[in-house]
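Researcher: Good morning. I'm working through a list of sequences from a screen, and I'd like to move beyond sequence-only analysis. For each chain I'm collecting a predicted structure so we can compare shapes side by side. This is the next one on the list. No need for commentary yet; just the structure.
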Amino acid sequence: MITRRRFASVAALGAATLAMPGIARAQDWKAQVPQVRIGLLGGENEADRLARYEGFRRHIETKLGVPARVYAAGDYAGVMQAFAARQIEIAGMSPAAYAGVWLDTNGNIEPLAVTEEADGSIGYVALMYVRADSGITSLEDMRGKSMAWADPNSASGYLVPRAELRTRGIDPERYFSRTGFAGGHEQAVVAVLNKQYDAGVAWGSGIGEESQGFTRGVLRSMVDKNMLNMRDLRIIWRSRQLANGPIAARKDLPEGFKAAMRDLLIRIPQENPEAHRAMERGNAKGFQVASHELYAPFVDMRRAEAQARRAR
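Model: Good morning. Structure tokens for this chain:
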């Protein structure tokens, strides 16, 4: 289980740093960051994404004293490109999207915080699902069947399942009869339910009741929105545990801003639990301070996937 020691002194350290002579004070970063632009990855319909993050947006304005704007991209690549073009300041990233930005920008992205699950872990799993009435009960049964990937920049919805299949000697291009991108996690679930594909992959906490879509994740979110009854799906495969994606900022932003945002994230479960629950899509405990080391394996996976594409 992926766990990390909680950094309880983050807020105190940030406050002490800003108070030190010769160090920029809290107001100084606002001249360089007059507003906070928040990027939202695709995978869920735009109206629901904007609604879920409205409380977080208002919380940033209240606590940091600058306007905050939310930008919902059509897919993961939209946020990645906006990050590289310096058009947003922060975003909740999948591990694979973070790794892609890190590679594309020569490291101009910095993890601020990572979600802590209800059991104290900071991980999640990729889940392969099929229709409950499909007769498919295992990965072996998927030979010659069709697979819906969520997004080419999703860890759980593309990168990790493919990497783990290859470690088992399975070539995804030959094992499945056909594959395609559904346009997001929710869209993939709908495509499977509508019999457009035999299986899909999504992310979930992997803890709690499977019958409710676990404690957090795509399936849980769809259950909560009455878009899905878990009796209609069967989980046939789980990945190893992966590090939750970070909320990340551009590395070139002022240290004062990044420290203030880290502090806001660490405190939000207590200061604004409703906004925290909405943005996390389920029962998460809070945030822990994150580091690049958590996501270095995903950088390696993206490089391996790129090499595999060139070899095809």
